[in-house]
Amino acid sequence: MYKFVIEGGIPLKGEVAVSGSKNAALPILCSSILSDGICRYTNIPRLKDIDTIIKLLSILGVEIKMDENNVVSVNPGRIKAFEAPYELVKSMRASILILGPLLARYKQAKVSLPGGCAIGVRPIDLHLKALIKMGADIDVSHGYVLAKTSGLKGERIIFDKPTVGGTENIMMAATLAKGTTVIEGAAREPEIKDLADALNGMGARIEGAGESTVVIEGVDSLSGVEHRVIPDRIEAGTFMAAAAITGGLVEIKGVNVNHLAAVVEKLKEMGVGIVEKGDASVYVDGRGGVGPIDVETAPYPGFPTDMQAQIMALACVANGASSITENIFENRFMHVPELMRMGAQLEEKGNTVLVKGISRLQGASVMATDLRASASLVLAGLNAKGRTELRRIYHLERGYEDLDGKLRMLGAGIERQVGGI
Ligand code: UD1
Fold first, then answer.
1. Which domains can be identified in the chain, with CATH numbers?
2. If DSSP codes are grouped into helix, strand and coil, which group holds residue 96?
3. What's the chain's average pLDDT?
4. Average pLDDT of the residues in 402-410
5. How many Å lie between the centroid of ligand 1 and the Cα of residue 187?
6. Among residues 110, 102, 56, which one has the least CA distance to residue 83?
7. Residue 267 and which of 52, 108, 209, 300 are 20 to 30 A apart at CA?
8. Is the CB of 306 under 6 A from ligand 1?
9. pLDDT value at 126 more than 60
10. Is residue 379 a contact partner of residue 402, using CB atoms and an 8 Å limit?
11. Is 318:293 a contact under the CB 8 Å cutoff?
12. What is the Cα–Cα distance from 238 to 252, expressed in whole angstroms?
């Protein structure tokens, strides 16, 4: 196992390039099995979660490979297996995104239930309800979803709450269904629009992706596609917070700032200087220190739950009292006790954390618990006086490409070392 050893207190300086979006790449790679032709995807991030989805597609019989330029080529062929096994699904919940494409193209699928996970129960009932309405027979037994259909048909699907994965699964299934599917109450995340762009490039007929009503007209078949994945807005937001928490000055490149409007607004309210430079670059100036903030997570375009832990780390060293409320997942405060070990003054009250800002955190041994919680502990370590050891960084490596390397390029004192449990 690896750990990060961080010597805090160095203001970050320089420029950093953002990788492709993990949460766009995962559904897009799953969507390749809907196609009859060769698909070529660029700007795929080099991550553990991407390795997992590539492994899953290989198990199904898809020819897939990633080259050194972060390009993934897929020859979906005719696949021979239809099962997403527990070993893969348990390590990455997004494996459930194979369900819609398998059912639509091959009329059958067996996918392990994702089960509980560190940040809450995270059911898939909305995915299943919608697929049943579209004509799937679904049986959940022995920890697996067994699904088959004589052919999916277009339907009106109303989601009671916006679900990113649910919207993606149904959108993919609907591309090859008979007739028109209308999704109401759809999630509006940029990753959904990116998936729709990739599917439309294959010949799908999707309108309204990125809005709350999405209309998909089913087609008979889909062809190959060449598609470039959007930048990772959460990675970009994490680097913004890193610049701010170290009092640094960083240029973040290859970012789509429109996707980060809610994060930029909150950081500006905290007093962080953020100036866009052209289309895809932004300067983040944390040299003036940070003030307190009230944040509530919400579905896009609201403040992302995937940035909640990072903004909390920043609020820990704000000049005043902040309040951070988590509205999407019920157990997403696992970074709280770890941040407290580093001297943070936090009080958890239901789904809100009250933060009393202090001037600086202290280095300590802490444990990564989930992907974004780990990112907040790296940020805390970059600020802290003294040495921080962050163990279980495999959580981080699921979702950040070369985080320590990129931070070192900005001058941070961070090393990846063998050790820790
Ligand atoms: C995706 C993102 C994840 C992000 C989350 C919310 C990927 C691979 N992951 O996760 O990083 O934190 O969106 O922005 O893109 N729900 C149900 N029933 C369902 C489905 C969801 O009750 O069938 C609930 C969930 O428990 C949660 C809320 O809906 O409370 C939103 O979940 P959802 O948008 O589906 O998250 P994911 O797609 O799993």
1. 2-19+231-418 (3.65.10.10), 22-228 (3.65.10.10)
2. helix
3. 95
4. 98
5. 9
6. 110
7. 209
8. yes
9. yes
10. no
11. yes
12. 11
Backbone angles phi, psi at 72, to 5 degrees: -110, 125
The answer to whether 222 touches 199, Cβ cutoff 8 Å, is: yes
What was the pLDDT predicted at 419?
A: 81
For residue 118, pLDDT over 80 is answered with: no
324-370, pLDDT tens digit by residue?
999 999 889 999 999 999 999 999 999 999 999 999 999 999 998 88
Cβ-contact 206, 175 below 8 angstroms: yes
- Structure tokens belonging to residue 22: 């993990």
Q: Which of 164, 308, 310 to mutate to test the pocket of ligand 1 (most atoms within 8 A of CB)?
A: 164
Beta carbon of 123 within 6 Å of any ligand 1 atom? yes
Residue 299 CA: nearest ligand 1 atom is: 14
Q: What is the distance of C-alpha 221 from the center of its chain?
A: 29
* Length, in residues, of the chain: 421
Residue 30 appears among annotated catalytic residues: no
Q: How many angstroms separate the CA atoms of 4 and 112, rounded?
A: 33
Atom of ligand 1 lying closest to residue 127 CA? 23
Q: How far apart are CA 183 and CA 204, in angstroms?
A: 15
